Known about the structure:
The structure holds two protein chains of two kinds. In chain A, the strands form three sheets. Chain A has a six-stranded mixed beta sheet with strand order 8-9-10-3-11-12, sandwiched between helices. In chain A, helix 3 crosses helix 4 (128-141), helix 3 runs parallel beside helix 5 and helix 4 (128-141) packs across helix 5. Chain A has nine helices and twelve strands. Chain A is an alpha/beta fold. In chain A, a hairpin with a 2-residue loop joins strand 1 and strand 2. By secondary structure, chain B is mainly α. Chain B has helices at residues 5-13, 17-47, 53-67, 71-85, 102-128, 132-140, 145-175, 187-198, 201-230, 242-252, and strands spanning 93-95, 98-100. Classes of the chains: A alpha/beta, B mainly alpha. Chain A binds chain B through residues 56, 58, 87-88, 91-92, 94-95, 97-99, 101, 103, 105-110, 118-119, 122-123, 149, 151-153, 164, 167-168, 171, and chain B through 131, 133-134, 136-145, 147, 151-152, 155-156, 159, 232-234, 238, 261-262.
Amino acid sequence: MTKSAETPLVRAKDVEKWFGELHVLKGVSLSVQRGEVLSIIGPSGSGKSTFLRCINQLETYQRGSITVAGELIGHHDRNGVRSALPNRKVVAQRRRIGMVFQQFNLFWHMTVLENIIEAPTLVLGQSRRRAEQRAMELLARVGLSDKADAYPQKLSGGQQQRAAIARALAMDPDLMLFDEPTSALDPETTGEVLKVMAELAQSGMTMVIVTHEMAFARRVSNNVALMEDGLVVCEATPKAFFEDQPHPRVQAFLSKMH
Amino acid sequence: MSFDWPFFWAQLTNPSDLYLLALCRTITMAVLAMVLGVLIGTVVGFGRLSRFWIIRAICSFYVWLVRGIPVLVLLVFFFSGLAAAGFFRFSDINFLGMRITASFQAAVIGLALHEGAYMAEIVRNGIQAVARGQIEAAKSLGMGTWMLTRRIVLPQATRVIVPPLGNDFNHMLKTTSLASVIGVQEIFQLTETLSASTFRTFELLIVLSLTYLLLTSAWNLIQGIIETKLRAYELDTSVKSWTEAVQVYLQSGIRTSGARRP
């Protein structure tokens, strides 16, 4: 795929982060064009989830920059002087970014439908009627039309994760982040979640996916990146990444996976 | 030994207006003190988790202080102690045609402050029981601090808070009897007065005990219904309304046990 001249929707440049003394991101640079899918793979502790969480400010980063649709995430930058964004701005920036978690994190005191309409009605001010209508469309899309009134606890892991995807989509995000969305699932239900994600990628959603599902990453991604020890070791198209010119570190990582 | 059955039955089945009025005082005192105590406890419970050390320190000090002093001493302190020192003297007030006595006010304040300290710990525990992932999910959906506190943290914490809160209210119903010491005419004090004039001490104390049992049993029922409603998420039947909660509770006989979370 040729690099388009269009500015990327997500552009991370030399992002660095410390947890106290621990240097977890050591200069991560990645970018995602609108409508593209980037998969990030790598061993646990490589910083891939932390990087993803920096994009919607569940974590802060100390150096470098992340921009989404041209807007600097998490910081003001006035003439090179950087200051943290006020909470109000942080909240506003997050609205355009959907996130799907490893542990689903559906609100357990609400039904599936209530989970989905919560943010559209309260944050975006949609009418309940409209939000419910949209929620039912999304539930149909993820194959959960009959579970609208069920509480999360009554659903399987795969169903919960599909509901969580519908909940994030209800905010009409520009970008969807997936933090190991199938790592807490058994193999049977993993497939149903991956199918929903593949359809979402097909529909043109911009996605950043942290995953261990190699076959899936290879199939749906425009680019695959390997992170190790807080750095991007290799970023390439799936074909180049997995077949053509396997980077020695990629080879080493992939051989450990099998 | 003789047990005056006719007297006992008369007291039990046809209580005097004086006794019913005293019962009203007992219930009102317990409810007011509990409501105030829950409010204090909620503020202090959040305060103990504040970002600012000074707020945490003040709240911790309050909990430490009040939990270390007997309720009886607190009540006497508020009613007599403050007045004796010339700081503050409660006086009777008229409210909607009812006379609210100074001792009643002091009792409500003392009981509420005492309850507030215990509630603060219960509330803090409830807030801390809310999983991090729930808050992160709310943040990722663009919810601000106040919205996620109101819509996610408080409702989830409530499920953890309600069982011990109900337990505290059960205590509160009985602890009101201490207000007799500062002169509130509630059911215990009235019983004492009546037994001094009738010498039917044993009979009257049994009537009194049955009255407290009636109060706590009624509360058990109410608490069970509230918990059934709050536990809708883990029940097999749909419990949307309070009417349904009453039905489900009465049918399944769900006992008031600790709230379970997934």
